[in-house]
Task: inverse folding
């Protein structure tokens, strides 16, 4: 409060009393009070919208509002402006209630004089200021507590996720490790009893178990990389249509093994554009291999790449086992496998990787599926201009 410019809004319908208050303020030793007088609550509220006041002097009997009901809209509109209520001798109780409900002070009209008025105004302003200060400190504290709590919850979730991740990973590594232990044990202990054919078969089993483990570790480390923000998009000029055709050739062996009809369509005109081939391989590799893996022998897989002005859409559709509704929302979480996979092998990491790679390329991935009918994955990647 600067000494020379205390702005007071007086809401008082009685002209004589308003004039008296103005007189008292004029008599104050320094001319530090600047008072605006209105006669109705409505006018007061309007005035508070137009200008900034240091304090409100409020009569509790107004033509458009009676008693404490005047306080509510004033506090709601200007919560930081102190209010001093003016009462008659016989309604002191009402005045005390007004203070309880948020007014800073009250003045009994008959007892008002310059000193009392000036003291009440200053006291109200200062009290309100310290209350406001406290309120702000409190609000800040509350915000900080909320922020820390949110951080703690997040950290707890990350820790829980990490613990689950490690436990799933060690579980999935144990299987191939056991197979290796078993096969090497057989080779070691029965060396002279085993036929060459059996030995080769055990060695093949060991190789394939090691390959599985290496694959699992590669996938896990890719997810780790994505989670720590290290999965970056490295763009190089690439003709998407040619790339997709070549990619289909690379997975031809898997297609043939299941005797599937595989259809590849490219829709639109494809020029060389900037893409991250590594990310594309992870996305399409996982989705296409899943479409093949979860198809029934003799089934059909459709792979379409559609060129749009600013984006490219990949559609991977199969008519395989489908995904139960309750699993669909968790599919992209690491290690989640639907309950209808039966004995079809898998780690549950492929879709998590595909999603993270699509996101690293600024895109998104979605699924629509019905059990026994089939599944379609759609990936939309924005074209990135150099
Ligand atoms: P997985 O190694 O188990 O295939 P993914 O992360 O690639 O792991 O997929 C997660 C789960 O999503 C799978 O276990 C399977 O239940 C379901 N899934 C993914 N693609 C298909 C599909 N094309 N058809 C049916 N189910 C699918």
Result:
């Amino acid at each position: 409060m600067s000494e020379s410019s205390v702005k007071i809004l007086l809401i008082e319908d009685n002209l004589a009393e308003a004039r008296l208050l103005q007189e008292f303020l004029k008599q104050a030793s320094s001319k530090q009070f600047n008072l605006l007088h209105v006669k109705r609550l409505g006018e007061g509220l309007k005035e508070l919208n137009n200008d900034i006041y240091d304090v409100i002097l409020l009569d509790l009997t107004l033509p458009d509002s009676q008693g404490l009901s005047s306080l509510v809209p004033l506090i709601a509109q200007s919560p930081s402006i102190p209010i001093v209520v003016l009462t008659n001798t016989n309604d002191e109780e009402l005045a005390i209630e007004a203070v309880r409900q948020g007014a800073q002070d009250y003045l009994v009209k008959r007892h008002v004089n310059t000193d009392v008025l000036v003291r009440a105004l200053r006291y109200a302003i200062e009290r309100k200021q310290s209350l406001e200060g406290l309120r702000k400190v409190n609000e800040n504290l509350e915000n900080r507590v909320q922020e820390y709590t949110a951080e703690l919850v997040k950290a707890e979730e990350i820790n829980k996720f990490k613990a689950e991740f490690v436990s799933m990973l060690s579980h999935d590594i144990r299987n191939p490790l056991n197979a290796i232990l078993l096969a090497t044990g057989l080779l070691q202990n029965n060396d002279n009893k085993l036929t060459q054919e059996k030995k080769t078969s055990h060695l093949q089993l060991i190789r394939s178990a090691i390959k599985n483990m290496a694959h699992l570790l590669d996938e896990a480390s890719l997810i780790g990389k994505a989670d720590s923000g290290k999965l970056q998009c490295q763009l190089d000029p690439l003709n998407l249509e040619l790339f997709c055709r070549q990619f289909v050739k690379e997975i031809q062996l898997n297609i043939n093994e299941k005797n599937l009809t595989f259809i590849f369509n490219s829709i639109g005109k494809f020029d060389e554009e900037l893409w991250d081939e590594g990310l594309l391989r992870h996305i399409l590799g996982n989705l296409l291999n899943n479409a093949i893996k979860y198809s029934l022998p003799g089934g059909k897989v459709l792979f379409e790449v559609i060129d749009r002005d600013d984006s490219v859409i990949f559609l991977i559709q199969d008519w395989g086992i489908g995904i139960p509704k309750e699993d669909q929302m968790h599919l992209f979480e690491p290690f989640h496998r639907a309950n209808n996979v039966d004995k079809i092998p898998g780690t549950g990491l492929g879709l998590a990787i595909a999603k993270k790679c699509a996101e690293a390329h600024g895109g998104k991935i979605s699924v629509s599926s019905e059990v026994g009918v089939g599944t379609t994955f759609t990936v939309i990647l924005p074209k990135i201009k150099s």
Notes: Residues 237 and 274 are 5 Å apart (CA to CA).
